[in-house]
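Write out the bound-state structure for magnesium ion.
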Amino acid sequence: QAKQHGKNNFQIFSYSKDITSYKKYVLEKDMRKAIDKQEFELYYQPQVETNTGVIRGAEALIRWHHAEWGLVSPGEFIPLAEENHLINHIGDWVIQKVCSQLREWKDNGYSLRPISINVSPIRFMKKGLVDLVKTELEKHNIPAKYLEIEITESSLLKNEKNVLAALEGLKSLGVKIAIDDFGTGYASLNYLREFDADTIKIDQIFIQNITADNKKDTAIISSVLHLAKGLEMKVIAEGVEEYEQLEFLKQNECDEIQGYLFSKPVPLDTYEQMLQTGYIKPTKPKVNAIPED
Ligand code: C2E
Ligand code: MG
Ligand code: MG
Ligand code: MG
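---
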């Protein structure tokens, strides 16, 4: 009986392992055609002013509607796309999509608010990023300041010469630069000073620990906030889910909030409804809500 049980466990384990590698295989195979099949969609997660909930902008986050697997999260397919370099193709689609979306908003009478996009370090290392951004902004006649490019702290730390050159190029276009997942890559303070980004996004790990009454994490957050103020950088706290976290961030004068307490990433039409109101009231996300979207 015990032996039988053990055998079953082994079967379950190897079955799920096969599922994982099968899924990986299918996703990788289908990724090439996904753009043409219009399976990618951008969701928007509002970034709001801490004290008022007024919408200041949003981060564009990619979603993949896969015929077999349904909604696939970027956490699952972006790493695959980075491995096989299809991320360049996908990333360029995101840039084009956001620029044409900004034009559409302008044409439809919305007062423009900046959109942040995530650009993979793989794309940063390849030539042509600055030219593409320039071309797309010009094509849609959008002032560069409405586009913000997020790069993770850890990819900045690699100090790749192409990455730094591309960042300089983007900055001279007038595009904003944000350091994403700040605090997870161990950048030195001196690095921050030299680098001169516009925005720091504090990683959600630090924010989530505010409730745990974690003295070390709250000390890190308040010193990042003070440092950023001195450097005249904007700070966005990511992953805010609790009123207690919001209160702490208000007291420490964090500029903006991006988190489920205000809104999850939402499809275009929902974001447009939010823009019409112009601000969002904090509401605690439901405990058993589906984690994705
Ligand atoms: P990220 O750039 O750090 O984006 C923030 C992630 O945190 C998003 O996950 C968002 O849904 C999630 N988030 C925001 N607020 C909360 C909260 O209050 N609680 C919790 N638990 N999560 C929150 P998402 O959309 O699944 O994206 C995951 C990552 O995938 C992104 O992390 C980014 O690194 C990558 N990604 C997404 N879209 C793109 C894209 O277009 N291009 C590239 N290269 N990477 C992307
Ligand atoms: Mg991001
Ligand atoms: Mg982040
Ligand atoms: Mg992240």
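---
Residues 1-13 have pLDDT under 50 and may be disordered.
Residues 181 surround magnesium ion (ligand 4) (CB under 6 Å).
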